[in-house]
């Protein structure tokens, strides 16, 4: 599969640089999704997750000729945090699948903040009015279950559906590594 994507990239780069770059971005996202960045505990560095999250946003912007309204904010005070892979990316993909992102008054809002002991991720969008894609909420249920199994009570996952808007707020509180503290 990656050889095929490399072949397509090589053919397309001569005539359409943006499409070629999109193929390369897609290949990188797919490689990431296959777990190449995971550590032994099954987690990834927050910076890796955010890099691929931004690639997902960029590919979707290109699909819509850069007409989507997206507001992305991040404040990363601790780049060493490790999280479950693809959780944040899945939430962003859900917004592209189910949201209406062409309204400048109601952009897709993505906020991520990290601190030494935690992560906060917020995403919200106006809901689409057209034909609903088949969805049964299993993706969100799977995320909730994964988070509960991994972080237990140190995690909250709140979904708000007003009928017009949809949002998710994720808070993860990490155990403080006492050994790291005492070695300083």
From TrEMBL:
Residues 1-67 form the Signal transduction histidine kinase internal region domain. It comes from the Bacteria. Gene3D superfamilies: Histidine kinase-like ATPase, C-terminal domain. InterPro entries: Bact_2-comp_sensor_kinase, HATPase_C_sf, Sig_transdc_His_kin_internal. This is Signal transduction histidine kinase internal region domain-containing protein. It comes from Mucilaginibacter defluvii.
């Amino acid at each position: 599969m990656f050889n095929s994507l490399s072949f397509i990239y090589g053919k397309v780069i001569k005539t359409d640089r943006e499409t070629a770059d999109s193929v390369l971005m897609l290949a990188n996202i797919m490689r990431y999704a296959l777990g190449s960045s995971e550590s032994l505990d099954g987690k990834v560095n927050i910076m890796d997750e955010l890099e691929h999250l931004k690639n997902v946003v960029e590919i979707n912007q290109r699909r819509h000729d850069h007409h989507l309204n997206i507001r992305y904010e991040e404040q990363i005070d601790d780049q060493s945090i490790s999280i479950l892979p693809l959780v944040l990316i899945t939430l962003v993909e859900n917004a592209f699948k189910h949201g209406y992102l062409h309204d400048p008054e109601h952009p897709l809002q993505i906020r991520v903040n990290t601190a030494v002991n935690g992560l906060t991720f917020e995403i919200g969008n106006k809901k689409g009015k057209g034909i609903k894609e088949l969805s049964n909420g299993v993706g969100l249920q799977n995320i909730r279950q994964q988070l509960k199994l991994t972080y237990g009570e140190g995690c909250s996952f709140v979904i708000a559906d007003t009928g017009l808007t949809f949002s998710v707020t994720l808070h993860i509180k990490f155990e403080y590594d006492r050994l790291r503290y005492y070695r300083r």
